[in-house]
Amino acid sequence: MPPPGLTPEQLSSFHKDGYLIVRNALRPETVTSLLAETQSLLQNFSLEDHPLTRFSTGQTSEHVGDDYFLTSGDKIRFFLEEDAFDAAGNLRKPKDKAVNKIGHGLHTSSPPFARLIERRAGEEEEEEVSPAAVARSLGYVDPRCLQSMVICKQPGIGGAVPPHQDSTFLYTDPPSATGFWYALEDATLENGCLSFLPGSHEWAGVDKRLVRKKGGAGTEMVDNEGGGKFPRGGGGGGDGGARRGRELDDYVPGEVKAGDLVLIHGNLLHKSERNTSAKGRIIYTFHIIEGEDREYDERNWLQPPEGGFTKLYA
User: Fold this and answer.
1) Which tens digits make up the pLDDT trace of 144-202?
2) Where is the segment annotated Disordered (predicted)?
């Protein structure tokens, strides 16, 4: 009997909408373990030798691109909220309440997070499905895991993330990224849950790319001129022009409980709002790309570590 993964109904929903919420994907014990590891990391990292790198979505300043960021693919590093600083550039929040995200190599460098990735198809705990089983359901031949991170929507200062596509940041030709987004705390309208534009993965081309600047110093957003611009090679799905004109009201919020998993197609337009509430929102996310017959662009901000990106299948 094949290992359990997504049901036919779940697959149909994912292919139609470009995202899927899988309820209770993690057992409470797993959520507790990952939250404990997160809190330990937040409490114990040092600010003494930290470059105070701020994470920016590009709305108010350029995307982050210093060496601390560019070499983080296989490490555990801490990126701070822009609004955690005062006008003089000093932190105005305790360090554990100032972090925007921890990344980007949790799946290789943190044992609790590595255990989730290392769970092979067929090795599921009761009522918990492995990422490998999900990837197999989605048709991946050689899925590779990359860009794993904890994202903290800090109370009162957690910044908004504008509409974007994950393929912009993790570009393959043709596009192949899928995001695994696990809620470790409840994500609500009040504290900045995700919102999705259903079906946009079928018509929204990957028009922009975040790449390393020439010489490797910093990053920049550039027009995408690659052949794999559209998900199905169809030039935007025929009525793409009309669909691009959709109003922001067409975004559908995805409120989730701790332990839920959100699967996100790499071409799907999605966003989140600022957290103005007193309740934080901690999530864990990683992405997979197809390693079979795909070109991972050498200009992508994230480059493979020695030995390549982590295989999900043994």
Assistant:
1) 999 999 999 999 999 999 999 999 999 999 899 999 999 999 999 999 999 999 999 99
2) 218-245
H or E element at residue 145: strand 143-153
Are 18 and 198 spatial neighbours (Cβ–Cβ below 8 Å)? Answer: yes
Relative to beta strand 261-265, strand 19-22 is: antiparallel
Distance CA 113, CA 38 (A): 10
The pTM of this model reads: 0.91
Contacts of 58 (CB under 8 A, 6+ apart): 162, 221
d(CA 30, CA 130): 12
In the chain, DSSP finds a helix count (H) and a strand count (E) of 7, 17
Strand, coil or helix: 289? strand
Assigned token pair, 254: 């995805």
Cα 39 to chain center, whole Å?
Answer: 20
CA distance 147 to 310: 10
